[in-house]
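Predict structure. Chain length: 73.
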Amino acid sequence: MQAIVLDVLLIFPDLLERGFDPKDGIGLDVMMSLDSTVFLFMLVCLIYGSSSCFLGQLPRLPIVAEAADRQVM
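Prediction complete.
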């Protein structure tokens, strides 16, 4: 369920970019910052999840696990 929440998180920057379509200026800077932030968050989640699995533990990503739990219940 956490993987599905992360996949949905990847869709949001693309939807915003298609909706606003910034060409230059502050809009482009905000979109680039958002894309970079989502990429870094996904990278940290990948490293944390992979290392937890490697150590034999169940990876529970702090923000993502709470959102996944709300979807299940």
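Summary: The two ends are 12 Å apart (CA to CA).
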